[in-house]
Amino acid sequence: MYREKIITLREVCEDDAKMLWEWANDSEVRAASFSSTPITWEKHIQWLKSKLSSCLCIFFIAMNSDNIPIGQIRYDIANHEAIVSISIRKEFRGKGYGKMVIWLASQKLFTESNVSKIHAYIKPTNKASICAFLKAHFKNAGLTTVNDQKAIHLVLVREDEV
Fold first, then answer.
1. What CA–CA distance (Å, rounded) separates 97 from 84?
2. In a domain, 14, yes or no
3. Which residue from 55, 72, 89, 144 has the fewest beta carbons nearer than 10 Å?
4. Is 1 among the domain residues?
């Protein structure tokens, strides 16, 4: 029986700290990150508090149709543009959730903020992420460098800005 994948987004709260920390320290997430060092609990709590208190950060937990958290997506905003960061919980990877979370959260960001362009920076070896962003209508803007590492730069522009 086919069951449609329905995704909802909710804002991240302090109660999500442990779950987000565990997801962030997943070995595949660390390998895909431009900073692969494991994150200590203390650093994570300090970081999360700064993100939750910032008006320049929009941070969501993606929930599936069974109301189970399947991943997170975050936008750090500056000058009407945002840099996106996403991770999908291990058990839900490879099932098409990434592109849906990216597309849904990006549309929400465009609708509810003054952001007109979203940037994604992805390691060239992270084929699944590149594919998910391209399927979510991001366009390849070429190669760049992030933390002294090569990165694919993908961009999504709000439709009324095109």
1. 16
2. yes
3. 55
4. no
- Tens digits of residue pLDDT in 100-158: 999 999 999 999 999 999 999 999 999 999 999 999 999 999 999 999 999 999 999 99
154 contacts 120 by C-beta, under 8 angstroms: yes
List pLDDT tens digits, range 137-146: 999 999 999 9
Tokens of 85: 């960061």
Classify residue 128 by burial, with Cβ atoms within 10 Å: 0-12, 13-18, 19+: middle
> Quick count: other Cβ atoms within 10 Å of Cβ 36?
13
Of 109, 96, 33, 45, give the one whose Cα is nearest residue 70: 96
Q: Is 77 a domain residue?
A: yes
Q: Give the single-character DSSP code of 161.
A: G
Domain extent, residue 55, equals: 8-161
